Amino acid sequence: HAKASGRNRSEVFTAHLRENALVRLSIEAELRSAIREGELVVHYQPIVDLESRTTVALEALVRWNHPTRGLLLPQHFIDVCEDADLVVPLGAFVLHEACRFIADRPDYTGRVLVNVSTRQIGAADLTRVVRAALESSGVHPSRIGLEITESGMLLATQAAHADLTSLSAMGVDLIIDDFGTGYSALSSVLQNPVAGLKLAREFTLRLGDRSTGDRISTAVATLVNSLDMYGVIEGIETEAQYRQALRHGWRLGQGFLFSHPRPAEQIDTSRLERSPEPLAAG
Ligand code: C2E
Ligand code: MG
Ligand code: MG
Ligand code: MG
């Protein structure tokens, strides 16, 4: 009986994979034209100073405005992008959009943080792509930050190391994204010039459990403050999580409680605080 159900499961799995491969191929072809045809858009989510709840920076998040399927989140296409070597054009697009956002809004003095795929680092010469986006928009390097996961920080190649070092030397901040989910040695991650980290949302979800969630949040907030980095706690959805985050020593946060990611035209930068907070550039 176990054998029979096992076979059923694997048949279902094989069928699913076959279908999936086809789905991926068609998404890949569509994505190539989406990048060309300008169907990708960038939304922006505020990062707030927790004490005052004022916006001090924005995270750029890509979306695909699909002609028939509507607005697609990255989870539906980022993996395909990575496998199909489309992360380089996608990354360049988001960086150019982020720089254009800054250049178009002289009243906005904060940073825009851009997510960088591990595949963009080193082999894809990220430094050159970032420099091109900054130069064509006239934006100062300190206005851009790059969010990189632990695995991206741990790339061992010479080219990857050169990319991260030269970006930081240019004045572009490197920020560890989804901190705590990467199973990496802290000492190895910190061999890079890291300016800040973002605590992964899965820990925020566990705030208030009076055990792991709270202890991890407190420990990482302490780590951030003692290493003189800036720390952002991600995924704050409730007032209770917000209060806990403050209590644990976090100064910056991000989450639906403050704002969902929004299209550029819905971000009213004239109403954003000019703030001397750690993420405000310059
Ligand atoms: P991430 O960089 O960790 O971004 C945070 C994600 O959490 C975003 O999802 C954001 O909308 C979501 N989020 C923010 N606050 C809350 C909250 O309070 N509750 C919940 N449930 N979610 C919240 P999104 O935009 O779907 O992006 C998912 C991931 O896709 C990102 O995770 C990032 O790894 C990747 N990504 C997004 N944009 C880009 C991009 O331009 N390039 C690359 N390479 N990756 C990107
Ligand atoms: Mg991010
Ligand atoms: Mg994150
Ligand atoms: Mg992520």
From TrEMBL:
The protein, known as: EAL domain-containing protein
Shown chain mapped onto the complete sequence: 279 to 560 of 560
Lineage: Bacteria, Bacillati, Actinomycetota, Actinomycetes, Micrococcales
Residue span, EAL domain: 24-275
Top-level taxon of the source organism: Bacteria
